Amino acid sequence: MDWQALFLTLRLAGLTTAILLVIAIPLSALIVLGRGRWLAGLEALAALPLVLPPTVLGFFLLVLLGPRTAFGRGIIALTGHPLAFSFSGLVVGSVIYSLPFAVQPIVAGFAAVDTRLVDAARLLGANSPRVVLTLLAPLARRSVVAAAVLTFLHTVGEFGVVLMLGGDIPGATRTLSIVLYDQVESFDYAAANRTAALLLGLSLLALVVFYSTTSARSARRA
Amino acid sequence: MLEFSLDARRGSFHLQLDSTFAAPWTVIFGHSGAGKSTFLRLLAGLDRLHTGSARVVHQGRVLTDTASNLWLPPGRRQTALVAQQPTLFPHLSVHSNVAYGLAHLDRETRNQRMNEMLQLVGAMDLINRPTSSLSGGESQRIALARALAPGPELLLLDEPFSALDGASADTLLARLHGWARARGIQTIQATHDATDAFITDAEVMLLHEGKIAAQGSAADVLVAERARLLSWLEPDSPAPRRDNL
């Protein structure tokens, strides 16, 4: 068992989930509460990674974060190293790739909150951040939890973006799905079986925990 | 004093109002679909016009002026709106609901204000109850207390006593009327119950299909309604019910 890859995968998934919740909650609130046609463009942009082949996204990020672009050179100047083929680069790629898995459930949850409650809060002087923190997020907490679970699992199973952007560097970018790929490439099916079973178990465990929580079950009954 | 000039379209509905409310208490009387709620929402700043025109000035302060692209957000209008359907925050207790608009106050002042509001609406005994356990009438009382707590200068009531029985509604209305008058809070009450206008001795605006049909004292504007109310008192009439008036 490649424990290093397991911990790296869990670290990547945990970090991606935390970052995405911070990004997705205000972004979803903007999509739901905002007005203007440009919001349709923003929503489409947030959903784009859902339909984009992971290798395409990985390739674009590889080029963007590399020394060929001004943006990439700026990052190198700031951090002292390119983001491509590093753990930090993987986090950036994962955040972008999993964005729709965080945004879509939260948008659905926020949109289901009665608009009259939002009106009441606004009349009582609540600004948008307060409306989100005291009203939308608590009332749509099941959607927020669903978004976190989906994001985590999606990142755990990520392959295309990881391979394109991070390559296969042990301890830095080699995640469980890369390990599995390597094991199959070298015809080590016994090891591949164990890795695949671990990925399957991880996914199943997270979903069982999610669906067994009272809130999730009551949401399905509602 | 509240001055307003509104020209708003929603599909086939056209709201066209241009007038001034000088009385401390004004009742907007009209049947369902007359435009009462739309009018109150525009005054509260909950709906923002992108076509048409609107100008709302309260006590000399411009709240909305589409000509100069001015629109104060609802929370900065010092305006409270209590709707027919009480919209209490379901995940918060009664205490937290009433305190929601008082976040800027220190704890002592906040508690003092909350107690004052709960006493006004006759709901002191509900303070520790979860909102899910409240009846419709209790929810309306708490929604009213919550809206009044921040100390609005303009109070908009959109049939907020509909879930209360006749006697309770009349008592609460009379108490609220006295409270608002003592503090100089101008109140606009939308209703389809003519008795509210007589109880509060209000100026009345009769609304019909988005237009002002009449404006003046209750005795002048609601002549027909008054006659209908009196007819209930005839010996041969069936017992009156508040919701039938």
Task: Please give a structural write-up.
The complex is a heterodimer of chains A (222) and B (245). Chain A is mainly alpha-helical. Chain A has a single domain, classed as MetI-like fold, CATH 1.10.3720.10. Chain A is 80% helix and 0% strand. Chain A has twelve helices and no strands. In chain A, helix 1 (3-33) packs antiparallel against helix 8, helix 5 (87-111) packs antiparallel against helix 8 and helix 10 runs antiparallel to helix 11 (189-212). The radius of gyration of chain A is 19 Å and the shape is globular. Chain B is α/β, with parallel strands linked by helices and 245 residues long. Chain B folds into two domains: 1-75 and 153-245, Rossmann fold, CATH 3.40.50.300; 79-151, no CATH class. Helices cover 33% and strands 26% of the residues of chain B. Chain B has eight helices and eleven strands. The longest helix of chain B is centred in the last third of the chain and has 18 residues, at 166-183. The model of chain B has no long low-confidence stretch (mean pLDDT 88). The interface between A and B is medium-sized, with 17 and 23 residues.
